[in-house]
Specification:
binds flavin-adenine dinucleotide; five-stranded antiparallel sheet; about 300 residues; alpha+beta; about 25% helix; globular; single chain
Length: about 300
């Protein structure tokens, strides 16, 4: 099997997924492949479907909580889809590019708009799926169209074809859709001014977020007119631990892996925080992170 997979990119077998999720929790997959190109991705999916082998796309794993059990399929990484084409104030960027790289490249080309994203440790693909954002901006503010792969065919969706709201899109959870790239419209700007904004944003993140520990960013979405972190803090949950997972003392909406946490530790702590906040404040917090279950993916082989 591994020899067949090697036709499509660099493959690893019996992979520890610890280095493929920013919580750094353990997990295993039978295979992981860095697919070489769009064309080979299409061929790979064909091959996997013909063999009824399950697959899953992981971006940078910065918005997911891995399952405890092992994945008997193929994790697909789009790292090699890493092209950025800039034409005047329009940018086409492939899904595997990391957001900070995209920001740096656009700012170097005197384009402004994406400075908010310089501290987001995710890929363009993952950021489109979840409508990543910060400081009152989000990626959908800049999207013209999205290039996707669906049922083996490439399609171009306009921004309006995709429902999107705060940290949510209608592409989320659609396991048969793969984002290949996105066309963005930015504004002409000044590199020095953009770099100043990026520096200020990064200083704010460093002072308010527990970046020294593995995490997956904000655990819950902010409810309308309030902050999840404020509610969690009000319930006295800062510093609460389960196993190696802890509600950060620095930012209550971050759960951190402070001591060899497992995925179950993280999941149990998420549930505890959610239930405690509901009981004590009446607010039903919505999870921003994705709790993966390999079972959900079985439909993908059909
Ligand atoms: C320290 C820290 C700070 C953060 N700050 C922010 C922030 O300010 N704002 C914010 O919005 N988020 C933030 N995040 C969360 C996270 O970085 C973003 O949500 C990011 O956009 C996720 O991208 P990813 O590539 O890691 O996606 P992943 O976690 O790898 O994947 C998320 C989902 O998208 C799917 N997916 C990924 N790529 C594709 C693709 N090409 N096609 C189809 N499906 C795909 C996956 O299958 C999965 O279902 C932060 C995280 C950390 C750790």
């Amino acid at each position: 099997m591994i020899d067949e997979l090697k036709k499509y990119g660099k493959v690893k077998e019996d992979v520890d997924l610890k280095n493929y999720n920013t919580y750094k929790v353990p997990g295993t997959a039978k295979y992981l492949i860095h697919v070489k190109s769009e064309e080979l991705l299409i061929e790979l999916l064909d091959f996997l479907q013909s063999k009824k082998i399950k697959y899953f796309i992981i971006g940078n794993g910065s918005n997911i909580v891995l399952p405890e059990d092992s994945f008997d399929g193929v994790i697909i990484k789009l790292t090699e889809l890493n092209k950025i084409d800039i034409d005047d104030d329009e940018v086409y960027v492939e899904a595997g590019v990391m957001m900070p790289k995209l920001v740096n490249e656009t700012v170097d080309n005197c384009l402004t708009g994406l400075e908010w994203a310089s501290g987001i440790p995710g890929t363009v693909g993952g950021s489109v799926i979840g409508n990543a954002g910060a400081y009152l901006s989000e990626i959908f503010d800049f999207i013209i169209s999205i290039r996707i792969l669906k049922n083996g065919k490439i399609e171009e969706l306009s921004k309006d074809d995709v429902e999107h709201s705060y940290r949510h899109t209608s592409l989320k959870g659609k396991k048969d859709i793969i984002v290949l790239g996105v066309r963005l419209k930015l504004n002409k700007g000044n590199s020095d001014e953009s770099r100043t904004i990026m520096k200020q944003r990064m200083e704010r993140r460093i002072s308010s977020q527990p970046l020294e520990y593995p995490s997956a960013g904000s655990t819950f979405r902010n409810p309308e007119g309030d902050y999840a972190g404020r509610l969690i803090e009000e319930c006295g949950l800062k510093g609460k631990t389960i196993g190696g997972a802890m509600v950060s003392e620095k930012h209550a909406n971050f759960i951190i892996n402070y001591n060899n946490a497992t995925s179950s530790d993280i999941r149990n702590l998420i549930k505890l925080v959610h239930d405690d906040v509901l009981e004590n404040t009446g607010v039903d917090l919505i999870l921003e992170q994705e709790l993966l279950e390999w079972m959900w993916l079985y439909g993908k082989t059909k």
